[in-house]
Every structure is written in C-alpha cells, then in structure tokens.
Amino acid sequence: MNHASFRRNWPTDFIWGSATAAAQIEGAAHEGGKEDSIWDAFARVPGAIAGGDTPDRAVDHYHRMPEDVALMSSLGLDSYRFSTSWARVVPGGRSVNQEGLDFYSRLVDELLGAGILPWLTLYHWDLPQALQEQGGWANRDTAFRFAEYAEAVYESLGDRVTHWTTFNEPLCSSLIGYVGGEHAPGLNDPEAGLAAVHHQHLAHGLAVERLRGLADAAGRDIRLGITLNLTNAVPNDPADPVDLEAARRIDALWNRMYLEPLLLGAYPSDLLADVREFGLDARVLPGDLQQISQPIDFLGVNHYHDDNVSGHPLPADAAPSLRPTDRPGRSPFPGSEHVSMPSRSLPRTAMDWEVNPAGLTSLLVRLGAEYPNLPPLYVTENGAAYDDVVSDDGAVHDAERTRYVLDHVDAIAEAIEQGADVRGYFVWSLLDNFEWAWGYEKRFGIVRVDYDTFERTPKDSAHAFAALIAQAKRQLAATTIVG
C-alpha cells in the first residue's frame, strides 16, 4: 500500500499504540472480587442497551490477557493504553480488593515483558454502582473517593507504570450519562450533569496532586495527564449569525468547558452565562479551580469526527439521527438544546459519524495556537466502526477502516508539520468489544472478535497499522545510523 503515512519521517520519540477500556473488554463482571459498575447496572435496565447486551463476558480479556498482549506484540505496538476498573479495584466503593489489583499487576508485567509501555487510565466510565447510589459524580464526595482509588492503584503499580491518565472523555461520563441519558447512569438531569463535570475536574486535580506527590516521595518518574474528546464545532453557514452562535455554544460545552479549567484555571464566561439556570457556578468552591489546574505533562486528544452545527431546526426531510435504542432521552447540551447537526454529505461510518481527516489537523493546530501553556499532545483515540464481513478466506478486508486510520495518521503528520507538538497515536480499538449503549452491534476493533468463541483475527487494518509502525521504525533506524 503506497500511502502517504508510510512516507513520513516521524519524530524520534513518537509512540504508536492502541487502546481499550476495562468495561468493554474484560468481562468477568463478578469474578475476582469485582462488583457492579454503573454499566453493569445500566445494562440490566430494559431497553438501555441495543440487543439487551451486557458487559458480563465482554471479550473475555480477563482470562485471555496474555494472548492479547502477545497480539499487541505481534503488531509492533510501542504502547498499550488500558483502563483499570474502579469497580474491580475498590468494589462497592468500600475497601481495596487486592485480587483486582493483582490482575492489573500481571497485565503490567506482561506488557513490560513484551517491551510495550503500559499507559494507564484510571477512569473510563465504570464508577462503582454503590457510589452512584450515593449520588455518583453529582456528589462532591466522589471526587475525594476517586483520589483514594487513584492512590491505591499507584501504590500497587507505580513502581512500573510511568504514564497515568486520570479521566477518559469526561464529557461522555458527565453530559451524555447524566443529561442525555444514553450512557450510564442514564439520567436526564442538567443540574446533575454539570455538577458531574465540575466534580470530575476536581477529582482530576486531586488525583494529579496526590500521584505526583507519591512519585516525588519515591523518587520515581511519572507523566500525568487527562484525555478529552474534542471536536471542531463547524457553523453550517459561516455567514449566518444563528449558526455562528450555535457553533460558539457547542465549542463552549464540548471543548472549552474542559480545556479552560484544566489549562487556564477558569470556566469560560460565555459558558457560565449559557448554563446559568443549572447552577454550575454554585458548585465551584474557593480553591477548586486552583486545584483543578494542576500542571499536567500531556493532554490526550480523542477525535473521531467534526460536528457541523446550526441554530436552525433540521429540515423536515432530514434523516433521523442514529440511536442505539428507542429509550427516551434528551439533548446532552444544557441550555443549547435547540442546536441541530445537519449533514454535510461527507462519507460516514457505521456510527453515522462524518469522515473528515482534515478536521483532526485543524483541531491539533488550533489547540497549540489558543493555549500557550499546552503540554505535549497524544492522539489517544481515533478509529472507526464499519460493518465488517468475514470473507471466504477467513479474513476481514476492512478497506474503509484501513483508509480511515491511515488518512488520520496523515492528518497528524500534517499537524506536526504545521507546528503541533503531537507525540503519539493510539488507534481505537485493539479489539471489537462492548460498545456501550450499542452493545455488540458496532465493531471498532482492528482485531475481529468472534463473540461466541472469542477467537481473535487481525483485520486488514491491523496488518496495515503494523506495517506503518514497522516502516516508521525502519526510517528512524536509518536516520539514526546516518546521523
């Protein structure tokens, strides 16, 4: 394949990896001391998950972990981004479960033995259900419980894990979970959703301070950051003030509500005005923003698509948005429920998401231009779901996904050439898995999983990604020898 990605000269420290999440792959939902997370409980709500699916078995990574690490090694991955399950480490939000920590300790040792950098995410949406019953992220106390959980994980793994992400995509676990209702815990409460945003920010700041203190006391290297899912809010008609206002609102709620407290120590004033009726400002206590804006060593950027937005209603003949179930919900955007997202007639994935690699370039460049104190960037998730077909030869010839991945890798290279400090790319996802409210209907993996037998089969996209990594390493080796 003569793709531009193969002809790039990548930075010498560029990291190639893949990512997963505990709730989506582990299974063993009630083994090894684990108790319910909010996703285990949500999956039992009638109509919450497509097909009535649950994460009980997922793709059985808990029992097949060594096989999966060997698979990563065969693809040449530099790093594996995984999450620890709070519900496995501190089941019921009570006391630390050593058996749960031991599983992650074995995973870390397996990765290090294969020469793969462990990149740990502390929260990928699986809050212990018992804490949700005390208010979950709408309860300020949960932030302090999170810092305790983070310390427990660090005490077990901090001697071997250097790269720590506090939260993955807090927008999803706050607005989509507490306001839109499509994700666990499945609420439709704007006040609770905005409280969740602030308390997750606070939890991030508390954990960063706690973990950096522990690492410094032990004389260990540590890299701390957070992963945000960021978008380009594109006005449908850039000459229409109504569409420009809609784009400003979505940019505030989707991007700046997360970036600015973390990097600048303040919520955007226009955002606070937009959501005034929902009490976000009342949640911010003295000292909170200083705590939240602890210095970080990297920012993870998850990006799958842009969002074309309008302040006008969709036309009567517009296709309805794709939803996993018929369960009632509401807009996840408090105060901006009127904003619509008309189609730009771009290619779309099986999730009905636009495919526009140039948007990733724009986003990465914009971040560096707008935030002078921006730390180094890593694209910590990027990938696509398509309706894969197993061919007669037993292979999955996923040409669309292969093109998607390579085109977005090119977009990152273009951003680097324009000055963006991007130091790694993690394809989502290593394995087909439990895709949240979509259950097992949508496949994002570069490796196919047979959900009956759990057999793993690398797709063409996996082979192409492995070839890209190998070529990048050959180029680096050649440059080093010449140098």
From TrEMBL:
PANTHER family found in the cross-reference section: GLYCOSYL HYDROLASE, LP05116P
GO annotation, biological process: carbohydrate catabolic process
Protein name: beta-glucosidase
Organism of this sequence: Agromyces hippuratus
Enzyme class: hydrolase
PROSITE patterns per record: GLYCOSYL_HYDROL_F1_1 (PS00572)
Residue positions of the active site: 381
Pfam families: Glyco_hydro_1
Molecular function, one GO term: beta-glucosidase activity
Similarity field: Belongs to the glycosyl hydrolase 1 family.
Database matches in Gene3D superfamilies: Glycosidases (3.20.20.80)
Cellular compartments per GO CC: cytosol
Highest taxon listed in the record's lineage: Bacteria
Transmembrane segments: none
Keywords assigned by UniProt, alphabetized: Glycosidase, Hydrolase
Stretch list, region Disordered: 310-343
